[in-house]
Amino acid sequence: xxxxxxxxxxxxxxxxxxxxxxxxxxxxxxxxxxxxxxxxxxxxxxxxxxxxxxxxxxxxxxxxxxxxxxxxxxxxxxxxxxxxxxxxxxxxxxxxxxxxxxxxxxxxxxxxxxxxxxxxxxxxxxxxxxxxxxxxxxxxxxxxxxxxxxxxxxxxxxxxxxxxxxxxxxxxxxxxxxxxxxxxxxxxxxxxxxxxxxxxxxxxxxxxxxxxxxxxxxxxxxxxxxxxxxxxxxxxxxxxxxxxxxxxxxxxxxxxxxxxxxxxxxxxxxxxxxxxxxxxxxxxxxxxxxxxxxx
Length: 295
What we know:
Blueprint: E1 2-10, E2 16-24, E3 28-33, H1 40-48, E4 55-60, E5 63-64, H2 69-75, E6 77-79, H3 91-101, H4 108-116, H5 130-142, E7 148-152, H6 160-175, E8 179-183, H7 187-193, E9 196-201, E10 204-210, H8 211-217, E11 220-226, H9 231-237, E12 241-246, E13 249-254, H10 258-267, E14 271-277, H11 281-294
Parallel strand pairs: 3-8, 3-9, 6-7, 7-8
Antiparallel strand pairs: 1-2, 1-4, 4-5, 9-10, 11-13, 11-14, 12-13
């Protein structure tokens, strides 16, 4: 289990993370969302024991992340946001080195992952493409069958086919009871793998919810086809957010109590068709930040 409690870590610039608390249990994937500089990397550095927080505590499997950092790092599965390798090695050399460091005897999982992600590790790493380095990072993170994984932008540089294979791998690991924290800008993989999502802004957690509830809590989109195109102007005049107008059809966005007000307004007009539009997690995230920024 990953347990972050009341963690504050500040830098001389004033940036950092402030009073951050969350837990990730067995068989759970937690999505960690936020723009660059929001505090995701600082949180991960605290979990890896690279940075000691000013206040609060981080534990993995009951072990303190600073005091027991070497032990945690040896068993943890980790994909960094910026993958760096020793360029003088081949991929095979690096995998052998990591297997020896972890005391691995059974390399069957490593072999299965190499085949799954179609990685040829025999080349020198300095000749690897971005995608090949990412595949090598994935194999390294998963090959020792870790119980806890921290994944920072894990599919960066992968093509859609390999992205899908990675998503399938994470879902399998979740079913096997693994504990996974995943930071990603790929909203589709968050939607398909995560049970809950936390959103961080300026170092502070501003939202924590399951994916479905988070999508449902934000604004809703209605696609309305009017018999009279001029009725769209009437809806705009009533301070509703109208977007994507095509002839006599408009997308209307509402939130919370506005739904009832919109339905009342539409009931007084001649409507040919009414449908809802499901929002993606990316739209929810962008809408949330837009709302926070204008508050």
